[in-house]
Amino acid sequence: MSLVSNLLYMLVLLGVGIAGRSLGVLTPSRRELLNALAFYVALPALIFSSMYAQQLDEVLTPALLAGLWSVLVVMVAAGWIVHRSARSNRERSVAIVQSYHGNLGFFGLPIVAATFGDVTTAKASILLGMGALTQVPLTILILVVLNDREASFVDELQQFAKNPVILSLAAGLAVALTGVPVPDIATTGLDVLSQFALPIAVICVGGALSLESADVDLPTVGSVVALKVFLMPAVALAAFSLLSSSPSTVRAGVVMLAMPSAVSTYVYATEYGGDERLASVDVFATTVVSLATIFVLLRFVIGAG
């Protein structure tokens, strides 16, 4: 598929998810089942199949990790400053978190895999794993600190250790490092499963979007969109271009960090005292706007076929 076809396909899938929720077809229990299928089956298959045959020195580079962490530091600082005048700490905590915490798994990796080759997808898989290791604890910390909530970081870490994204990344890296052969029947099955990662994940995102705008601070929503969808990709492009001369590193870094605010940030906001309505509207707004910005990035900035 061409770039335009891929993005139109993704837009249709997003619409299917939104329509399914609106019509009552995609009920909460069915959304939960689809989420589980994407999170525990399709995404891990995509991550492992993109990693296991790679040369690690080509995909696991200092520039890749330095780029990720430098962009996150800049965006947390920018969010902290820009959102300092939010109406409450509940709003400020959510706005800061959603200015950097992107949808790397359900949007980022499938888009990279559908658009670029195996090396770029493998680098995006590493960014997904390391991004999760960085974003999730950072998000919980900000929400807890600003909302005076108590949280058991030991429990969170134990749950995180069971994350299928982390486990599949570790398995893929281990096989790539040791050179253990993977049976043909296994690789064929994984390739088939990985093809479902994009459609299932995007339908899940569409089914989870909600526009509950009552009493939401619209200027705050606008500032979150500006930071997450416009500033963060620009910072990522500058950081990865300075740190690496590899096109695959720049492409993986910029596309992954250009993703909209993660749906999971709504869950974390609910759990740790953030403003739930703002979180919901932010996810919706950044997702809709990012469809246009991702197209511009892929077509005119970093290049895609």
UniProtKB/TrEMBL annotation:
Residue ranges crossing the lipid bilayer per the database entry: 6-26, 33-53, 59-82, 94-114, 126-146, 166-186, 192-211, 223-243, 249-269, 281-302
Annotated compartments: Cell membrane
GO cellular component: plasma membrane
An individual GO BP term: transmembrane transport
Key word Transmembrane helix present: yes
Membrane topology annotation: Multi-pass membrane protein
Keywords: Cell membrane, Membrane, Transmembrane, Transmembrane helix, Transport
InterPro entries named in the record: Mem_transp_PIN-like, Na+/solute_symporter_sf
PANTHER family according to UniProt: AUXIN EFFLUX CARRIER FAMILY PROTEIN, TRANSPORTER AUXIN EFFLUX CARRIER EC FAMILY
Family: Belongs to the auxin efflux carrier (TC 2.A.69) family.
Full protein name: AEC family transporter
Organism: Natronoarchaeum mannanilyticum
